[in-house]
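Handout for the seminar on molecular recognition.
Each group receives one record of this type.
Step one: identify the two inputs.
Step two: read the structure output and locate the region that could contact flavin mononucleotide.
Step three: write two sentences on what you found, then compare them with the reference statements printed after the record.
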Amino acid sequence: MNSNPLSTRLAGLELRNPTALASGILGYSPESLQRIAEAGAGAVVTKSVGLTPRVGYPNPTVVQANCGIINAMGLPNPGIAEYASEIRYAKTVLTVPFIVSVYGYSAEEYAAVAKAAATAGADAVELNVSCPHVKETGSEIGQNPKLLTQVIRQVKAATSKPVIVKLSPNVTDIVEIAQAASAAGADALTAVNTVRAIAIDAETALPILSNTRGGLSGPAVKPIALRCVYDIYEKVKTPIIGCGGITTWKDAVEFILAGASAVQIGTALAQKNPAVFQTINRGITAYLKKKKYRSIKEIVGKAQRN
Ligand SMILES: Cc1cc2nc3c(=O)[nH]c(=O)nc-3n(C[C@H](O)[C@H](O)[C@H](O)COP(=O)(O)O)c2cc1C
């Protein structure tokens, strides 16, 4: 019998606990990712990497909102050729599953980046098909079931590593998109990326972000993300990783009850500190004990009304 009540298995990955670092919060450095593992995360996800280097948008790229932040970084990244050596090094440093987030402008590009990341040693790839602020990638793929199917099929053909698909909340029916991703062979679904948003400065009478629009994250988006997980779990068998506004152990438990097998934490880390992983894991453990559950597996999807 498994004696660790927090352990969870999804997409062929064994996690010692259900918390993971969300993409984009800490960038790429193997050392900073390992610090997050040491602080208690069960897995880490890199910032999204593409085929070629990208500078990203000029400042301001982040603005504070009530109960969250709005960002439009513009996917700055070194490109997979440069990052591949960091992935190889990260594999020698990291003590938890290492998930590389990838993006592209076509199915071929997604497949090429995913293949390079997997070959360099990523334990899984997460497809960012949901970035709300970069044209022709991200949401434009994640909002279109046909395009999404092509991307996932090509990535699956290019690598045998698990493929996690990160969904956008900026769609009319997230279940339709999740069903398409699942049918195309996604091994897990991350729900969700940021919610399209804007901030305006009354003094200058202009949008604050250089890119005008951005994506909202943090506690403000939690009820939306939770609803997305609940809706997907109701109709789709593929395991779900909940993401969006998770700050406390209670938030994490709510996502698991809605149907998530694991959770990702982003903004809470930027606003609190890496201890958030341990605090959340301790809280989940105490909850399981109090409610007399032996493992988190027993409570995945328990809030679903049949
Ligand atoms: C500054 C910042 C950068 C982000 N960069 C990425 C990224 O490169 N790729 C990606 O898939 N998601 C990215 N995200 C989205 C997060 O991974 C996460 O889906 C979202 O912030 C919701 O979770 P949270 O409320 O816990 O932050 C970014 C979020 C923030 C705040």
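Reference statements: The pocket of flavin mononucleotide is lined by residues 22-25, 47-48, 62, 69, 71, 73, 75, 101, 128, 166, 193-194, 217-218, 221, 243-246, 265-268 (CB under 6 Å). The chain has a mean pLDDT of 95.
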